Amino acid sequence: MQQIATNARPFQGDPHNSIALTVLAEVRSLYLDRKPQEALMAAGTLVLGREPCKSYSGWGVLTPDGPEEDQVTNGRIVVSRISQEHGILSFENGGLDRALPLCVGQNVRIWPNHACIAGAGFNWYFIVDSSSKSPNRVIDIWVRWRGW
Questions:
Q1: Residues 28-49: pLDDT tens digits?
Q2: What's this model's pTM, rounded to 2 decimal places?
Q3: Residue 40: helix, strand or coil by DSSP?
Q4: H-helix or E-strand containing 25?
Q5: Fewest CB within a 10 Å sphere: which of 16, 45, 74, 147?
Q6: Which listed CATH number (3.50.50.60, 2.40.128.110, 1.20.120.1080, 2.40.37.20) goes with 2-122?
């Protein structure tokens, strides 16, 4: 997200199509009585890092699940707060009267603010081809190289 916010490279079309690293996290709890509604996910600072992004106030953005234009109209879901091992998901900029379209046990993909920091916490990368007919099917596993 930081690379997009700083225009670190030129993009054609939707810049989110160029984000290669996502973090998969499970929704653990829903807080439907809160205004705005929130959800607890099993990924926090240890997974996403603590670095902010200049383009929004959050620690990651939920990848769209449906048409991209739906997020523009209805707002995107962001990681609005984080603790060491958990994050809170909510609509960006409010959404007080809107139902959060998530359920307990659901896996969500998060675009982290900084891919290098987020990627450093994992020993393996599960590779998928998001342009294929099975965009969530793992087609390869890359072992992270450590050391300089």
A1: 999 999 988 999 999 999 999 8
A2: 0.83
A3: strand
A4: strand 23-31
A5: 147
A6: 2.40.37.20
